[in-house]
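Re: weekly structure request thread

Next one in the queue (322 aa):
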Amino acid sequence: MKTIGAAALSAMILAAAAPSASAQDKVMVGEPSWPGAKIMANLIGQVIETRLGGQVDYAPGANAVIFAAMDGGRGDIDVHPDVWLPNQQSFVDEYVDQKGTVALSEGFYEGRTGFCTPTYMAEEHNIRSVFDLGTPDAQTLFDSDGNGMGEIWVGAPGWASTSVHQVKVRDYGIDTFLEPTTEDETVFYARLKDAVDRKEGVVFYCYEPHYVHALYDVTMIEEPDYDPAQYAMVTPDEDADWFNKSSVFTGDEVKTVKVAYSKSLEDRNAAAASFLANIDMDADTLSGLTYEVVVQGNEIDTVVGDWIAENSDTIDGWLGLN
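Done, posted below.
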């Protein structure tokens, strides 16, 4: 009769005790609408599938929906791939700090937000400051439909930054001359392309990392330096009268962008939770991936998969393997 050595027996016991991929819950990754978030969602999903042997599905949704689902802990949505702080601080205050049902990654990248205009507008018409937008000249320069009012795109519906920039447009005195619009990003960027092709006036909310800075020659418009005393933002989820109760007369502070995940994953899929706690993206890398997907038209699965294959050491670090 063949005997089993102590070391081999120990290994068999540990293997039997460890949860298999099939025993782990499927991870539902939230997919907000902006390109960087979609890429981060796909990257998270591919790492869980290819390196952890797990199952992943994706759930489009706005910030409030994703955070509420993570709070529920039932697996409806487990991950928010791109949490911009302090834009989404109210959700962090509620679900991370107060309820303790959501956790944030240790790693992060930096983001910057503001208003942009094509550089030809900045140079030819001396549009340098946000206060250059609150003038009769700007009203004419940025009037794309001929109705006598200019337009300024402040972001897509559901973005936390959209509310902030709606308030800014009012408090900087811009809304007397430019009407804020909140159409979907895809719709706006089709209009932006047409405007740039015709060298027409257009001004819009912009952020970094984002492919627009590689796609077009744009200038970020100057704002007053960030001053917390001049930044009193009440979010729509906090108060229905948020717009009237908010006041923003300052540029944004540099953003910290993290991944959020449901604490329930620590029990339902511990390997995925550990990975999400350690993930650490950087802005330049994300900008490059976004450019490949949005501007060059490559498939997101292919772009992300190629990056994962070429950066195995980085992924190993996220997985705690080096």
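The chain has a mean pLDDT of 91. The longest strand covers residues 109-118.
Next request, please.
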